[in-house]
Amino acid sequence: MISRPVASDGSQPWRATKTGIRLAVRLTPRAAHDRVEGLVERPDGVWLAASVGAVPQKGQANDALTRLIAEWLGLPRRAVILATGGQSRAKQVDITGEPDELVASIRAALEVPGGIQSTRH
């Protein structure tokens, strides 16, 4: 299954769900640092770009991604789960919470210059 950005108009990588939001992420494994790079526009839409140091084996990169997103947004890890894209760089992440507050948190976090780097590696 190929993941696509979740915004209907392609202008943002998220959409509201019944329990929070679904976020479209392009993941780069085996990176030097765990970090959220920012938004990237591609021919297939807008994605949140993230990189993790973990290898893409046995779910290690996926686990690192959900941990990174939770830390980035100041949420408990259980609030962030991988919805689709387990074996792809294109992923959909479900984040539990009030959609407007989550979107505001994402927008605020994206305004920090130089991306958001995790304290873990």
The main pleated sheet reads as: 7 strands, mixed
The helix-strand sequence is EEEEHEEHE
Shape: globular
| Proportion of helical residues | 10-25%
- Give the DSSP E fraction (strand runs of 2 or more residues): 25-35%
Low-confidence stretches: 1-8, 115-121
Q: In angstroms, what is the radius of gyration?
A: 13 Å
Structural class by helix and strand composition: alpha+beta
Please work out how many helical segments DSSP would assign. Answer: 2
Structure description:
The structure is a single chain. With 121 residues, the protein is an alpha+beta fold. It contains two helices and seven strands, in the order ββββαββαβ. The protein has helices spanning 60-73, 99-110, and strands at 14-16, 20-28, 35-42, 45-51, 80-84, 90-96, 116-117. Strands 1, 2, 3, 4, 5, 6 and 7 form a seven-stranded mixed beta sheet that branches. β1 (14-16) and β2 (20-28) form a beta hairpin.
Keywords:
alpha+beta, 2 helices, seven-stranded mixed beta sheet, 7 strands, single chain
Quick rundown:
The protein has 121 residues and is α+β, with helices and mostly antiparallel strands. It contains two helices and seven strands, in the order ββββαββαβ. 33% of the residues are buried.
Topology:
Layout: E1 14-16, E2 20-28, E3 35-42, E4 45-51, H1 60-73, E5 80-84, E6 90-96, H2 99-110, E7 116-117
Parallel strand pairs: 2-4
Antiparallel strand pairs: 1-2, 2-6, 3-4, 3-7, 5-6
